[in-house]
Amino acid sequence: xxxxxxxxxxxxPDLTDRPAVAWQxxxxxxxxxxxxxxxxKGQLILxxxxxxxxxxxxxxxxxxPNCGVWIPGGVxxxxxxxxxxxxxxxxxxxxxxxxxxxxxxxxxSPMIREMVDxxxxxxxxxxxxxxxxxxxxxxxxxLAEMPRERFNLHVSSNPxxxxxxxxxxxxxxxxxxxxxxxxxxxxxxxxLARLMIAETGLxxxxxxxxxxxxxxxxxLASGATVQTVAAELGYESxxxxxxxxxxxxxxxxxxxxxxxxxxxxxxxxxxKE
Length: 273
What we know:
RmlC_Cupin_sf; Helix-turn-helix transcriptional regulator
C-alpha cells in the first residue's frame, strides 16, 4: 500500500492553548519524509522505537534512545524517519516552561519519557484543571532541568553545501571525492574546501564522516545490523566502519548502544550543573 499521508497533515498542535500536548506517531502509517514546516508551539521529539533525523536551524539532528531533540516554536524544521519509527511529540506553548531558545538535544529521564507517553493518551483539549494539566506541568518543570547533549551536524544555509548535504543524506554511500563534489556544485576544489571550513568549521572529509555517524546512529537505533549500515555508507568492510565508529565515539556500535541502554535504565534524573 502506498502511503500518501504526511505526519503534519493529521495533527495541528496550535489549535489548543494548553501549556503542553503530546501526540504519538507511528511511521508505519505515514510517509517517512516530514516536509519543512513550523508551528507556534515548541516541539520535543522522542523515539520509542526506530529512529529519526531532523533538519532545523541549519543543523541535522539525530534523536538517540535516551535523548530528545528540542525545536523552539517558529523554527522551520523537517524530518526523516525509519519505516519502523514510533515517536512521541511533546508540543509546548511559548513561555510555558524555561526551555532553550535555540534547537538542541536534551538528555531525557525515564520519568519524563513516561509522563510524555501518558500525556499522549490524553485529548489535546484536556481540562485545564484536571489530572492531565497537572501531569503536563510536572513534565515541563522536569524538562526544564534536563542537560544538553551533542548529536548534531552543522549544515549551513549556503545552497551549495545544502545541495551536498541533501544528496549525501539520501545516498550516504556516495564516495565522491571533494574534487568530484566541487565539480558537481560548479566550484573549484580549493573554493569548496574554503567554503566548508568557513560554513561548518570542518574539512569536507571530517564533515562527511560526521554525517555518516549521524546516519549510522539513526539506522543502528532502528535495528539495522552493523553489516547493513557499513554497506549503506559505502565502507569496503565492516571492520573499516567499526574502526571509524570507535575512533569517533570511543566504543564499538554494540558497546555504544549497550551503554546507552544501561544509562536509560539505571541513571538517576540528570540535572543541570
